[in-house]
């Protein structure tokens, strides 16, 4: 087996998916994605677009502007026709599936350089747009239990996650993301893109729009439930509707050495796992268990974790049940904040978690050996991905 290393990982800042307030409201998702590619190639001049074997692009809702966005964005961005693209959909784990498919292709020797990306614009292609559920699903599940908010409420009830614990998690997610932003940590991964302020003024967007440095427990406690009159999940404890794109440049290790390129992490292993779609948020539990069993590792062997915070209820249920931690602030989970603050552009997030994990391990924890990124997805698909420091 060959080895796959991360040469670079970048992303756009995350914008609110809002047609009046969103910083990227005037951009199409293909434009955000190719601006990220432009930034990636500009800072890696030794790698030419024509040398890419293929682009794997994750996107959750491949309809409308996002129909086959992997291929169409590549062409619209002026990139070579000779480089093929595979748009991969697996709901929220789409971007992670893209990265893992590319890594596996490199390890099998099918190609040496791949671009793995993820993108989603939840404003112009809203969740469930053009959705047409198979009627037979209703024989198996209560269809009212399948929408994301309903699953977050069900997980909170079944895993006994209190509203206060969720709000505490949101508090720390914002505080850590704000601290990381102020310390310039995300500057290494964010490609600035021109966007619009509320008043229509143009500006370069280089920070995530949702992060609240001044988050208040009192304000959160006063918010109305979003999905159920007597529910416990609010906008503060849900990942917000977001627009964003991320991309990883992955390469066969020997080629990277011959080209004189540096890298910190290599792909070690990855799994996808399935669970009951009505509690889809607990997907990282079977995914991480499978990943650890396959690799012979224990929870305590993993130095850093990136858990997608689709909802505070599900993320906290997973962190607890896997025996990693009880409550935020966590020591080694989402150390620069999570999706409650940074945002969760569905198909982008799996790639973004790996981009950020790579950045965290290179920047703040250069001696850490293993990092895991994991996320749940609509309808009960989950992914977990293990990355290893090449020096350990
Ligand atoms: C929960 C949800 C329905 C809320 O959507 P919304 O009603 O449009 O609400 P917003 O996110 O715009 O937030 C409503 C208001 O609450 C505010 N708010 C959000 N979080 C807050 C916080 N922590 N503290 C204070 N105010 C907060 C927002 O700023 C907004 O006010 P503003 O417009 O004045 O800025 C939506 O974010 C959602 O569906 N999230 C989940 C997405 C999802 O399912 N993803 C897939 C997971 S697998």
What does this structure look like?
- There is one protein chain.
- The chain is an alpha/beta fold.
- It has a domain at 4-125 and 240-386: Thiolase/Chalcone synthase (Peroxisomal Thiolase, Chain A, domain 1, 3-Layer(aba) Sandwich).
- Helices cover 32% and strands 20% of the residues.
- It contains 12 helices and 12 strands.
- It has helices at 29-42, 69-76, 94-108, 137-140, 148-158, 163-182, 217-221, 253-258, 284-295, 312-321, 339-342, 346-363; strands at 4-11, 15-16, 54-58, 85-88, 113-121, 193-196, 202-205, 242-252, 265-274, 304-307, 370-377, 381-389.
- The strands form 3 sheets. Strands 1, 2, 3, 4, 5 and 8 form a 6-stranded mixed sheet that branches. A 4-stranded mixed sheet has the order 9-12-11-10, with helices on both faces.
- The longest helix is centred in the middle third of the chain and has 20 residues, at 163-182.
- It is globular and about 60 Å long.
- The two termini are 18 Å apart.
- The mean pLDDT is 98.
- Coenzyme A (COA) binds next to helix 5 and helix 7.
- Coenzyme A is lined by residues 92, 148-149, 170, 212, 215, 219-220, 226, 235-236, 238-241, 310, 344, 346, 378.
Question: In summary, what is this structure?
Answer:
By secondary structure, the protein is of the alpha/beta class. It has helices at residues 29-42, 69-76, 94-108, 137-140, 148-158, 163-182, 217-221, 253-258, 284-295, 312-321, 339-342, 346-363; strands at 4-11, 15-16, 54-58, 85-88, 113-121, 193-196, 202-205, 242-252, 265-274, 304-307, 370-377, 381-389.
